[in-house]
Specification:
A 4-stranded mixed beta sheet has the order 1-2-4-3, with helices on one face. The protein is globular. It starts with 13 loop residues before the first helix and ends with a strand. It has a domain of 81 residues: Ribosomal Protein S8, Chain: A, domain 1 (2-Layer Sandwich). It is built from 3 helices and 4 strands, in the order αβαβαββ. It is α+β, with helices and mostly antiparallel strands.
Length: 123
């Protein structure tokens, strides 16, 4: 009995995963969501994905920022809401079929505060 095929956006070939894990790829587009609230961040992500797909880009670096560690946060609002919402946003996005995979970024590109969004090649 064969396993069901993986869901879209969850697999890459081995060379992509190796290159991403080593941080040797250069993003085609960078989107920094620092300073945005959930609504503006979603709108900006949607527009930037549309631009990247239209330009034939393969890799978008999405910088969400790192959540505070422990009780060292002096901000009165909880941080990390954008990072928590990104997975759902991408899955429900009108661009979901164009996304090959989402991976954590290499420390050189932001580590825990960033994600790689790998876009499918247009045929």
């Amino acid at each position: 009995m064969q396993a069901p095929p993986p869901a879209p956006g969850t697999t890459l070939d081995g060379s992509w995963d190796r290159r991403l894990s080593r941080g040797v790829v250069a993003p085609d587009f960078v989107l920094d969501l620092h300073g945005h609230n959930l609504a503006t961040a979603y709108d900006l992500l949607d527009r930037r994905l549309e631009m990247a797909i239209g330009a034939g880009a393969r890799l978008l670096l999405l910088i969400t920022g790192k959540p505070p560690q422990g009780d060292r946060s002096e901000r009165p609002v909880k941080r990390g809401a954008i990072r928590a919402a990104v997975g759902d946003w991408l899955a429900a996005s009108r661009h979901a079929r164009d996304i090959a995979a989402v991976r954590n970024a290499h420390p050189r590109h932001g580590g825990a505060g960033a994600l790689y969004i790998v876009l499918r090649r247009r045929r």
